[in-house]
Amino acid sequence: MKAVPGIQSPQEIELKLALPGADPLTLARRLAQIPILARRKNTRLHLHNIYFDTPDSALRQQRVALRLRRVGDAEKPKWLQTLKTAGRSDSALSQRGEWETPLSSASLSLKSLQATPWSDLDPDGKLFRTLAPVFETSFERTVWLLRRPDAGVVEVALDIGQIVHGERSTPICELELELKAGPAAALFEVASQIAASIAVLPASASKAERGYAMAQGATHAPLRARPQRLSAKLPRTEVAQRVMQEMFSQFTGNLNSLLVSDEPELVHQARVGWRRFKSARRLFAPLLEPQSAQSWQALQALLTCLGRLRDLDVARVETLPALADAYIARDPRRAEIWLAMTQAMLHSANLQRKAVRYAMQDPSVGACLLGTTQWLEALHASGAVDGAQPEVKGSLRRWTQSRIKRLHEQLKLARQSTSEPEQEHRERILAKRLRYNLEALESLLPEKQTQRWHAQASRLQAGLGAKRDAIRAASLVAELEIDRGLAEFLRGLSHGREL
After folding, report:
1. How far out from the chain centre does Cα 347 lie?
2. What is the pLDDT of residues 91-143, one digit of tens each?
3. CATH no. of 278-498
4. Homologous superfamily (CATH) for 11-219
5. N or C: which end of the chain has fewer CB within 10 A?
6. pLDDT tens across 227-279, in order?
7. What values do phi and psi take at 58, rounded to 5?
8. DSSP secondary structure letters along 245-271
């Protein structure tokens, strides 16, 4: 939605945090015990919201939200109409336009929208007349208002409730830290003090986005890569920031869905998001101050759990089912062994999924993810050496192409070495790094060369990946100690793929 000349754009700046593994019944009490909130008076409100859109989702397509909010109970309600325009969707820190108007009744007011960008979206009022409720949210909000020594003011809001569409619902359990006055860094300072005691996860999806996803039957759908179209006129550090924020958001977005969904693809896409992020971090390293590098040691236990869960999911869902007929060969006894193995693999995967969720409840994990979010927010403003080293000189296109070419040369060199398992692992990692960065920077690279290198990297990754998956599946089955003959059969097949 375009800005309307002469209309002031009120800005809502907030940091959203999910609360993994938290007990909603005790959260307000636990938060009130954190030093930064202790002995501070809080306010409790019941908020009920109705979100509107047209039959063809015109508002959603424009990344606009229009809602009616009832504050208080049904007997003495206060009504507010709120219009929100698009904010950045690749960070837990959002900044968007917000226009809020008190109403006397539970009916949308076109008049109240006239002094907002709505007039640009719907100049003749036709769109307004087609609006209808799409979904609702209902939650209890506990609010603490923090006045800081630097004159900053931060509102900390705990929301516990649900999003409802028809007969379906999904829970709300999150913190919203809204900046009322002062610098945005104040949000991260407050959040960091909370994260020291309570597990958090940066969350980029708003309640409206989650509600729309539910309306479309896509609740907790895996978040896949969404590379941006990049302009060659952008500063290099801004390109680095945009690229890495999208990748990091893919990682944290899938982690949030993993808290409540057993969908195996969420695990895969979380790991893809993390690997894309680390690949881009290496690619853009010459643009960054050496001291700006983040430590992700606190994530190691979580990443290890995710890796093992992904191995189990690939083995039981993809690799092993294709081998069932060859092993069973119409033998009833072998069929029983295979069934016992598949049940044991499912049990192992379920236990490992619990381990992943348990790992996300470690406050150090959330603190690390929050620190990375803050680092990315500050990257373009203060984390760059743009032009300070010889390696970063030249146009954005030339610099990007040089970095990608260097990565391609590393892969070529790796392929000329021996075919030892360690070397093949390095080839596979380099192929992934090349593919991820080609996809992320496609708009800045030569089209034909990019397509050719991407196809080469994809084929290499797929071939080495299939071999690795077969070896890993055989190893996982052997660990179960179901049947020695089955383990030997799978080990032989994996060895055959190695040759």
Report:
1. 27
2. 999 999 999 999 999 999 999 999 899 999 999 999 999 999 999 999 999 99
3. 1.40.20.10
4. Hypothetical Protein Pfu-838710-001 (2.40.320.10)
5. C
6. 999 999 999 999 999 999 999 999 999 999 999 999 999 999 999 999 999 99
7. -65, -40
8. HHHHHHHHHHHHHHTT---HHHHHHHH
